[in-house]
Each structure stands twice: as C-alpha cells, then as structure tokens.
Design goal:
membrane; transmembrane; Rer1; transmembrane helix; Protein RER1; mainly alpha
Length: about 190
Amino acid sequence: MDFSNDESMGKDSSISLFFRKIANSYQRILDTSTPYKLQRWIFAIVLIFLFIFRIISAQGYYVVIYTLGIYLLTQFTLFLSPQLGTLEMDIMEDDMEDEPTLPVKSDDEFKPFIRRLPEFKFWHNTIRATLIAFVCAFIPFFDIPVFWPILLMYFIAITYLSMKKQIDHMIKHHYVPFDIGKKKYSQKVDK
C-alpha cells in the first residue's frame, strides 16, 4: 500500500486549515471594526504618516510613494463616483440629453446616492495598499533613483485633472457625495 498520498493529503488539509483559520480571524477583525468609522480612518491616517516618515528618513523610495499616491487617488475618485452615471458614461451621454439625473426639483424622482466604491472598501484598500507600500519601503530593490520633484509635479497635475473632471461630473449631474450640509431627518416615536 502507498501511504505517501495519505501523508500529502494530511499536509494539504492541515495547511489549508491553517490558512482558513487565518482568513477567519482576519474577517472577524474586519467585521468588528466596521461600526468604528472614525477610529478606522484615524488608524489609516496614522499608518500613512508612518509610511511618509519612513520615506523621509530613508531619503528614497519615491517611486513607491508615487505609486501609492496614484492608487489612493484612483480609489478616492471611485469613492466619489456614483455607481450609475459614472464618468465613462458621460461620453455616451453627450449624444443623449434625455438621460435621467439626480432630482433637483421636488417633483423629480428620488434616486439615492450609491457609491461606486463603498466607504469600508475604500478604507480597506487604503490600509492594504499602505501596508504593502510600507513593506516595499524596506526592500532595496524598490529604491529606484529618480528625480522626485518631477514625480511630485506629475502627481499634482494628475490630481488636479482628475479632481477637476470629478467635480465637473458632480456639477453636471447635481450630486454631492458627502453628508455635510444635508438635512437630517429624525423619526418621531409615538408613545
């Protein structure tokens, strides 16, 4: 009888069980952190500042911080974008002026703002990307010599152009992706 297959299957199942336990623990941490929005974002900002401190102290890894910046800019743009009526649809909408938009009058149909990238996924992607960049900032292979002022100017130009495009889209379709300044309705409880 050949027992080598049984031993390898036992190793495979124990390895998969180990990774399943890690995945379950990770998911449990994510689930318990969901209601703590302010604390999650404070953690993300602290992590980003630690990463920036690493970049400043190392005086290098400018490509890593540039890559992280572009990724976070892309995630932020997706966070600001509505799920329907995205920027890509504007090209098609130029031909169709009868396309529905968010209501601007009291008799218009109400369509709630649904983000293309939910807040929790935006936070989760920010944390993961920052941790990956932080690890890359300790690997000498990623310390590519570049003239960092050019990267900074290019990043500022990309940020300006993408935010201008996003703000124009928000003005065109009459939506604000934030709750700041919106009416708050309270429910009356009958006793």
